[in-house]
Structure formats: structure tokens, C-alpha cells
Amino acid sequence: MHILFYTGMILISGLIMGKLVSYIKLPEVTGYLLAGVLIGPSILGIVPVEAAEKLNVISEMALGLIAYSIGSEFNFSHMKKIGKGILLITVLESLSAVILVDLAMIFIFKEKLFFSISLGAIAAATAPAATLMVIRQYKAKGPLVNTLLPIVAMDDAVGIIIFGISMAITKSLVSVDVKLPMGKMILLPFGEIFLAFVVGICIGIILSIVANRANGEDQLLTIALAVIFAAIGLSVELNISALLVCMCIGATVTNVVPNNKRLLSIVDRFTPPVFAVFFTLAGIELNISILKDVGIIGIAYMLLRVLGKMLGASLGAKIINSPKTVQKYLGFTLIPQAGVAIGLAMIAETELPSPYGAKIRTIILSATVIYELIGPLMTKIAVFRAGEVPLSNSPKSNINC
């Protein structure tokens, strides 16, 4: 079959399954993943893996757009308003999850260092969509929600930075072409990260200047997409993180361009079908047959990541003297993991030797489905027990997330 036939099948199945899971109050991304598993080689075999591989360019586009959107939340004036305390909690809850997973993989499961670092780095990412859905549904308000909202806005940005550092180190560990001195091996990854920041900022400035001369929204959309896609391609050529570059583009635009909302939101007109294909492709490429080989490690990853998020969030909240409800329940709202984590897993798969990359992707995709199922429920429990749901929205009969 022609590749466009498969593309149509991917979009249709993702749309249908996304709609179906919404009836049981689950995020659309969960439906996309399940649709991919259903039509992929694991079950029905409608879309073969070979066809999915030909659409990998869409995955690269989606990742760049996700990173651009995350970077747009990095407004310095807004960060000053929310204070250093929120940033501290974000860093601690992210790093705690990373460190716990790293240590367990290295010392308990005796996995290779590059595999452990790569898997641990993905543990930092959190998906805000499911959490925000519950907050909006129950109109929750209070210290817990006020602390949570800026954290989920910054969490993925912190996660991408951690992942960028980890993958740069991983590439040094798996390289067999040359034996680098230890000092150079340590400094090289940070040089790549610095270059990614410089390239992203420069391209962001260029986009800011060119966008001001755009005539109409159609032209503005074309310019924004052209710059983002060119930045992704340039990043690949320079062997630096496209995620960090695109995140820096978004961050530069949001801090440099006055009245930047139009430029930042214009790409949203293009993203829905791209994201639907991206997440459904992830499900198609999920190799269910190797789940038995990564089962224990996968379960450990899921539990340790949640434990790390809870410990880090609680510790950060205690350090800045947050209310007891925040200290106790904030970690429960940080469980979901979806889009960014899937993207990072797919990048790790391309960077790591076989079969380690496939293991990471399988673990993350499996964990994503579990997290997206239990995450909304845990968020609901947290905001109810914190007493931040108005009485009119919390009748005893209201038990659905």
C-alpha cells in the first residue's frame, strides 16, 4: 500500500480511539497509543513497522514543535513572579526521580551505565495535560493548585535539559571510534549543550525579527514552521540536541518579542494531526513481545519514578515552608507522563545500541499507559484530600475522574 494510505489509517484510528477514551475521562494521548498498538503488527497488523519507519520525519517534526511550545513557557518575568521556591521544587522533584532510577538500574539491576543514565533521564518528564484536566473539571483552587500549575509549566523544560546532558554523556560512553581522555569526555557533553543553547537563541532572534515582517497569519505560520524545521535539520547536522535548540527558540521568542502570544500560538494550527500521527506511531512501534524481557525493570522504573517525584516534591515544599497540604499531596499530582517522555524515549532508541534503545522505548510506552490511567485518579484524590475542591463540585456520588 502507498504510504499515504497508512498515514490516513493512522490518523483515523488515532482520532477514533482518542474520542473513545475521552468517554472514560482519559487523555487523548492514551487513545493514540492504544490505537497504534491495535493497528500495528502487535495485534491487527494493518500498518507494518516498515511503513511506520518511513514516517519518522513526522516524529522529528512533532518533537521540535513540542520543545518549542515548552520553551515558550520559560518567560523570565513570569518566573520572577512565581519565585525561586517553585523552581527549587521543580528541580528537586525532577532530579529525585532521575537519581532513584539511575541508582536502581546501576546497582540493583546491574544494567550498563549508558542504559541506566538514559532511562533515568526520562524519569524527569511529567505530562501536565491529564493533571490540568482534573483541576479544571473540579474547579480546584488553593495552595496545592497554585504551587502545581507553575511546576508543570517548567517541569518538561527541566526534564529536557537533564535529558540533553544525559544523552551527551551517553554518546561519549557508547562511542567506540576513539578513546577520549576522562577530562575531555566530561567536558565534551557540556560543550554540545552550550552549542545547542547558542544555536537556539540565535535562531530565536532571527525568527523574532523575520516574524515582525509577516503579512497575515498564514505567512506567519509558514515562517515559524520553516524556522523550526530548519533548526531541527541543522541540529542533526551539528550533532546537538534538537530538543534543546527548539526549546531555546521558544524561550527566546517569549522573552524578546513584545506581544508574543500570536507568534507562539500560531503553530497550534498545524500541530493536532502531527501529534496524532506521532503518538499513534509510537504505539505501532511498541514491541509487545519484549515486554516479558523488561517486565521487572519496567515495574521498577514506574515505582521508583513515582517515589522520586513524591520525595523530591515533599522535600522542596518543606524547604520553602509550603503548607502541609502541599508537602503531603504535591507528589501525587506529578505522576502522569506522556508526550515529552515518549519523544525522549524515541531519541534514546536512535542513540543507543540494540537492544537497549528498544528496551527503553518499550518501558516508557508501557509506563505511559499506566501513568495516564492512574495519574488523573491520584490527582483527584490529592485535590479532594487537600480540601481545594468547592463543595458544589464534590458530592459523594461524584466518583469519576
Automatic annotation (TrEMBL):
GO terms for cellular component: membrane. GO terms for molecular function: antiporter activity. Its main location: membrane. It is a multi-pass membrane protein. Signal peptide: none annotated. Residues 15-383 form the Cation/H+ exchanger transmembrane domain. One of its GO terms (biological process) is proton transmembrane transport. The chain crosses the membrane at residues 6-24, 31-49, 86-108, 114-135, 147-170, 190-211, 240-258, 270-290, 329-348, 360-378. Pfam families: Na_H_Exchanger. It is found in: Membrane. Keywords: Membrane, Transmembrane, Transmembrane helix. This is Sodium/hydrogen exchanger family protein. It comes from Clostridium tepidiprofundi DSM 19306.
